[in-house]
C-alpha cells in the first residue's frame, strides 16, 4: 500500500509539472527562425531601381498626355453673359425675380470632330459643397426607405413643411441645380440622354425605389430644382448626381450625353434656362462639352506627374552613377553570415 501511495504521489507531481510548464512546442515561428529578406542597398541595386522606375513612368506619362490631348473640350462661361444689360449691376435682382426672362441663347463652335458620346457637364466655381453644415444636412435613412421618411433630425434647416416632413430633406437636396440645356445643330434638335449618369452603387443602395418626393420645394424660399412627385428617388438621376457632394469648391457634375458625332466647325445652338442663383455668393457657372479617352476627360496633371517622377528618378540614377565612378567607396562584407557571427545556432526556449 505504501508503495502504491508513493507511486500515486509521484504521478500526481509529474502531471502537475507538465501542466505548469509554459514551454511552447518548437516551431520556426515561435522561435523567430523564419527566413526573412534582408536586402542590402548596394549602389548597383539603388541605380537599377531608379532606372526601372524612370523607364516605366516616362512612357506612361507621355501616353497620358497624348490621350488627354486627343480629348476635345468646349467650355462656355455663360452666367454673366446671360444677364440682360439693365441688370448688369444687380444680377441678384435678375435671378430672384419671377418676372425676368431667364432664357439665353449661346452659340458654340466645335473646334475638332467630337465623336459620340459627347458628355455634358455643368461646372460650378466657389461652391463649397464640402462645408460641414451643408454636408450633414441630409438623411440617408430617409433616402433609402419609405418607412423612415420622418427621420429628419439631421436635415436642419430644411426638415419640415406645414404639411409634414420634407422628402428629400436637407440643404443638399434643397439646393439642387436647376439650369437646363437644349442643343441643336443645323436646325436639328439634339437629344440629351440622361440615363445611367449616376454611380450604380448610389442608385441601387442609397436611394429607395419606394421613396417619392413629398412637400419638396413647397416653402416660401425655393433653393433649386423641383422634383416629379410621381417618380421614385432611385430614378431621379439628376438628384442622385447632385447628392454626391464634391470635395473641392470647383467641380463638374454630369448632366447628360449627346449620342451623335459633332463635326468640326459645326455651330451648336444652346438654349439655356439660367435659373440657378450663383450671383449671391460670387460663384460662376460653366457649360462643358467634352469627349473622353481611356484616362477620362482632359487632364494634363496625371501625365505631368508621371513624367516628373520618372525624370527625377533617371536624374538621380545618372547622378549616382557619376558619383560612384568619380569617387568610388569600397563595400563592406554584405554576406548574410557577417550579420550572425558568434551566434550559437541553437534553439531558444521560454520556460
From TrEMBL:
Source species: Prunus dulcis (Almond)
Biased composition (Basic residues): 17-26
Skewed-composition ranges (Basic and acidic residues): 138-159
InterPro entries to which the protein is assigned, alphabetical: CDC50/LEM3_fam (IPR005045)
Region (Disordered): 1-26, 138-161
Similarity annotation: Belongs to the CDC50/LEM3 family.
This protein's UniProt keywords: Membrane, Transmembrane, Transmembrane helix
Localization terms from the record: Membrane
Protein name as annotated: ALA-interacting subunit
Any one cellular-component term (Gene Ontology): Golgi apparatus
Transmembrane segments: 45-67, 300-326
